[in-house]
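Lecture notes, part 5. Sequence design as translation. It can be helpful to think of inverse folding as translation between two languages: the language of shapes and the language of residues. The source text, in C-alpha cells, appears below.
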C-alpha cells in the first residue's frame, strides 16, 4: 500500500534495514545526500521536496556512535528547515543509553543528553526498540513509541521446540525483558546474580531459579563486549544447564565480543538487524532476525494515528 504524505529518509548506519522498511511500506527511500565535506563535516542535502510531509528518519546510533548520532541530528534539522510537517526519529538502536543515571559522582547522564539533542534538532516524535531502560522515554518531552523485539525473537525460539526451556536474565537489570520472553514461551524464569561476598574477594555467581538439566535461553537487550553474556553462560552451565542459547536484541559487538561469544559454545545466538553485522563479525550459529516488519508497521500506524501498542497484544 502506498502511503500518501509519508516520507522516509535514512542516515548511513543501517541502510539495509531502512530499505527493508521501505519495501514493507511500498515506498521509496527518500533521495538524499548524507556524505562528508572535505574536512569530514557531515554534508546533508535532500533531493526531494518534503514540505508538509510526515517525515521519518531511520538511523541506529551504533558505532561509530558519534558520527551516526550527528548524521541523525543534521537530517532532523534539515527536514525541519525544509518544512516537513512532522519529523520522527526512528532509532532501532538507541546508543549512549547505558548512562541513564548518576550511579557515581561526577558522571554525566548521556541518555538524557541525547534526548535533549534530538529535541533541540527538531524531532517531534521518537520510535525506538528495546531501550536499555524503559524509563529513558521519560527523558523526552515529546511522544516516544517503544517497540519490543520480543514477538520476533520468541517466534524464532518457539519454532525450535526446545526441551524444557528456561529464560535467564544475565543480570538483575534485565529481568523485565527476560520475564516478557518467558511469558510468551511458557518457560520458567531465572536470573544470574553476581555478588561480591566480601570487599576483598572476587565476585561469585548465583542463579536465582532452577536451570539444572534445562535449556537456558540467556536473554539480554544488547551484547557489547560480550563480557556479561559469556560470564552468565559460564555460570548457568556450572549450575547444570544442559545447553545454552543466547538472545540479544542489539548486536553492538565491539572489542572481543565475537571471540567471547564463540567461547560460550552456545547452541544458537539470536540477534536482530537493529545494527548491521559486518562479515568480519559473523560467527557460526548466529541468526540475525529482521525487525523491518515491526518498524514498518509501527511507522504506518503512527502516520495513520493508529495504536502502536496493539502490535504487542
Ligand atoms: C547491561 O545492563 C546490559 O543489559 C548488557 O548486559 C551489557 O551492557 C552488555 O555489555 P557487555 O557485552 O560489554 O558485557
Amino acid at each position: 500500500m502506498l502511503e500518501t504524505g509519508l516520507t522516509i529518509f535514512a542516515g548511513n548506519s543501517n541502510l539495509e534495514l531502512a530499505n527493508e522498511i521501505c519495501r514493507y511500506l511500498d515506498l521509496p527511500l527518500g533521495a538524499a545526500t548524507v556524505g562528508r565535506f572535505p574536512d569530514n563535516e557531515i554534508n546533508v542535502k535532500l533531493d526531494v521536496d518534503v514540505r508538509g510531509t510526515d517525515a521519518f528518519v531511520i538511523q541506529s546510533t551504533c558505532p561509530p556512535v558519534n558520527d551516526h548520532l550527528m548524521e541523525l541530528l543534521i537530517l532532523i534539522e534539515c527536514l525541519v528547515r525544509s518544512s516537513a510537517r512532522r519529523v520522527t526519529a526512528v532509532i532501532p538502536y538507541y546508543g549512549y543509553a547505558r548512562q541513564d543515571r548518576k550511579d557515581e559522582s561526577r558522571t554525566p547522564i548521556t541518555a538524557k543528553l541525547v534526548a535533549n539533542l534530538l529535541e533541540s534538532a527538531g524531532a517531534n516524535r521518537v520510535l525506538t526498540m528495546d531501550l536499555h531502560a524503559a524509563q529513558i522515554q521519560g527523558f523526552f518531552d515529546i511522544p516516544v513509541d517503544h517497540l519490543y523485539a520480543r514477538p520476533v525473537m520468541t517466534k524464532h525460539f518457539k519454532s525450535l521446540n526446545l526441551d524444557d526451556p528456561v529464560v535467564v536474565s544475565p543480570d538483575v537489570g534485565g529481568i523485565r525483558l527476560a520475564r516478557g520472553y518467558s511469558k510468551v514461551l511458557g518457560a520458567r524464569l531465572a536470573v544470574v546474580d553476581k555478588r561480591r561476598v566480601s570487599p576483598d574477594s572476587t565476585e561469585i555467581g548465583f542463579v536465582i531459579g532452577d536451570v539444572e538439566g534445562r535449556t537456558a535461553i540467556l536473554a539480554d537487550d544488547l551484547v557489547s563486549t560480550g563480557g556479561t553474556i559469556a560470564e552468565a553462560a559460564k555460570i548457568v552451565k556450572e549450575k547444570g544447564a544442559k545447553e545454552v542459547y543466547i538472545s540479544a536484541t542489539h548486536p553492538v559487538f565491539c572489542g572481543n565480543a565475537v571471540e567471547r561469544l564463540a567461547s560460550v559454545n552456545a547452541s544458537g545466538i539470536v540477534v536482530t538487524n537493529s545494527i548491521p553485522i559486518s562479515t568480519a563479525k559473523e560467527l557460526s550459529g548466529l541468526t540475525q532476525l529482521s525487525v523491518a516488519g515491526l518498524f514498518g508497521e509501527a511507522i504506518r500506524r503512527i502516520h495513520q494515528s493508529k495504536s502502536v501498542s496493539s502490535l504487542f497484544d
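The translated text above is only one of many valid answers, since several sequences can fold into similar shapes. The chain has eight helices and 14 strands.
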